């Protein structure tokens, strides 16, 4: 399992070792001990344990995000695509961070087997690049409607370079999300 640093200090790309032969392939998609030891080796904090798994399926052109939850229900997310492809994005919303308002995007596909670790303090979203894109999330807290928040997917201050200019489908709550400048910073901790 290889951990790759991104431009956002705490967001990491994880490439599992994939073993192939005539039968097909095998990979270890998650190992708690290895995950924690690699984070520690890189000087990153070990998150709360994962307590919920989510699975979404999206058609091509669906944009989901940019979502986060407020403390005390903030979520860290370990995400991957098991069928199809997605452009996955994390935005640093930690108001005291040197990378506040910056973003990183990674193409996750069933073929590349990459995962993205997004700790608490980041907004998260993705654009489905193929029909029938299956996206898996491991989260460090359960969903809480009262703590759920979002920021605009096309916030000009953040300037995410999405692979398309306009998504084919965007949930009404995502279309109505505030910009980062409109978010009440007292909520961000």
From TrEMBL:
What reaction does this catalyse? dTDP-4-dehydro-6-deoxy-alpha-D-glucose = dTDP-4-dehydro-beta-L-rhamnose
| GO CC term, one of those recorded | cytosol
Pfam families assigned: dTDP_sugar_isom (PF00908)
Q: What does the record list as GO biological process?
A: dTDP-rhamnose biosynthetic process; polysaccharide biosynthetic process
State whether keyword Isomerase applies.
yes
Q: What is its EC number?
A: 5.1.3.13
- Is rRNA-binding among the key words of this record? no
Please name the SUPFAM superfamilies in this protein's record.
RmlC-like cupins
Instruction: Say which species the protein is native to.
Output: Aquabacterium olei
| Record: active site | 67 (proton acceptor), 137 (proton donor)
Q: What is the uppermost EC class here?
A: isomerase
User: Which pathway does it take part in?
Assistant: Carbohydrate biosynthesis; dTDP-L-rhamnose biosynthesis
Q: Which GO terms describe its molecular function?
A: dTDP-4-dehydrorhamnose 3,5-epimerase activity
Could you tell me the superkingdom of the organism this chain comes from? Bacteria
How does the annotation summarize its subunit structure? Answer: Homodimer.
Question: Where is the site labelled Participates in a stacking interaction with the thymidine ring of dTDP-4-oxo-6-deoxyglucose?
Answer: 143
> What family does this belong to?
Belongs to the dTDP-4-dehydrorhamnose 3,5-epimerase family.
* Keywords on record: Isomerase
Q: What is this protein called?
A: dTDP-4-dehydrorhamnose 3,5-epimerase
- What does this protein's UniProt record list under function? Catalyzes the epimerization of the C3' and C5'positions of dTDP-6-deoxy-D-xylo-4-hexulose, forming dTDP-6-deoxy-L-lyxo-4-hexulose.
What the entry lists under InterPro entries is as follows:
RmlC-like, RmlC-like_jellyroll, RmlC_Cupin_sf
């Amino acid at each position: 399992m290889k951990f790759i640093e991104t431009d956002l200090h705490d967001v990491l790309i994880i490439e599992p070792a994939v073993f192939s032969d005539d039968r097909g392939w095998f990979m270890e998609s998650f190992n708690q001990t290895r995950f924690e030891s690699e984070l520690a080796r890189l000087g990153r904090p070990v998150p709360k344990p994962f307590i919920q798994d989510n699975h979404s399926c999206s058609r091509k052109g669906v944009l989901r995000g940019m979502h986060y939850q407020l403390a005390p229900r903030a979520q860290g997310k370990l995400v991957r695509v098991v069928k199809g492809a997605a452009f996955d994005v994390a935005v640093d919303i930690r108001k005291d961070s040197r990378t506040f308002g910056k973003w990183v995007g990674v193409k996750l596909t069933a073929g590349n087997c990459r995962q993205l670790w997004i700790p608490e303090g980041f907004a998260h979203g993705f654009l489905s690049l193929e029909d029938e894109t299956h996206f898996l999330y491991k989260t460090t807290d359960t969903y809480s409607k009262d703590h759920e928040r979002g920021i605009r997917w096309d916030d000009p201050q953040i300037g995410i370079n999405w692979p398309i200019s306009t998504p084919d489908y965007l949930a009404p709550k995502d279309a109505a999300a505030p910009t980062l400048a409109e978010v009440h910073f007292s909520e961000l901790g």
